[in-house]
Amino acid sequence: MTLPDGQEPEAKPEPGAEQAADAAASTPEAAATTPEAAGEAPKAEKPAAAAKAERPARPAKEPEPKTAPRVAPPAGSVNEAVAAASGVTLGAAYLVPDWKGESVAVEVSRDDVPAVLTACRDDERLDMKLLRCLSGVDWQEEGLEVVYHLYSLSKKRGVTVKTRVSYDDANVPSVAGVYPAAEWHEREARDMFGINFTGHPDLRPLLLPEDMTDHFPLRKDNPLQEIEEWQGENLREGAGEEEE
């Protein structure tokens, strides 16, 4: 067909171009390329993995009290029987929570520990044949403490015996000869707190490598303590998010 002078022929779309344009217009990206264009509020971006792993600043914590409020046991409590059976002058005596209600704790000097525990085991007024637990406590500037939890199956009552030593002289007589169960517990306390139980038959490391004799994981001066607390807090927070 011949066109008048000066006019260009109308450009015809290539085959399939119209169908491609219709398909592109029907996609969500063509309808709204941004949340603002679609009338939606912008979504908050998720923190990057690197930012999430960054160690947060630890909030200041109130110092923990060194001792809980102490309530003296009533007359006729087990501490009187302990003193009479052992012939030892006891230190402080006070009520403490126990697995079956309340129990009595008594403080003794480290040198009196074997005599007190032997009397608790053998005297018929006490008959405490069971050493339920032996544990260590780090009181920092106030020293290290060893705690013995005793129980009588016949009398249905217990007593907690405590003794303290300094960091510089962390030696306590072993009671493995009084309660065989103490052999394992004393090895564990030596590993975790660096308490030396003199007279123990075999005080080799139990939970740590045998050549690791100068690292005590549960002492509060352990350089990894803050990192372990931070990891524990993150694990608790992560568990809470999964539950939600």
Per-chain topology:
Elements: H1 17-25, H2 28-31, H3 49-53, H4 78-86, E1 93-98, E2 101-107, H5 113-122, E3 130-138, E4 144-152, E5 157-165, E6 171-173, H6 182-193, E7 196-198, H7 225-243
Parallel strand pairs: 2-5, 6-7
Antiparallel strand pairs: 1-2, 3-4, 4-5
Helix pairs in contact: 4-5
Describe this structure in words.
The longest helix has 19 residues, at 225-243. Strand 6, helix 6 (182-193) and strand 7 form a beta-alpha-beta unit. The chain has a domain at 78-222: Beta Polymerase, domain 2 (2-Layer Sandwich). With 244 residues, it is α/β, with parallel strands linked by helices. The chain contains seven helices and seven strands. The chain has a five-stranded mixed β-sheet with strand order 1-2-5-4-3, covered by helices on one side. A two-stranded parallel ribbon has the order 6-7.
Give a brief rundown of this model.
This protein has 244 residues and is of the alpha/beta class. It has helices at residues 17-25, 28-31, 49-53, 78-86, 113-122, 182-193, 225-243, and strands spanning 93-98, 101-107, 130-138, 144-152, 157-165, 171-173, 196-198.
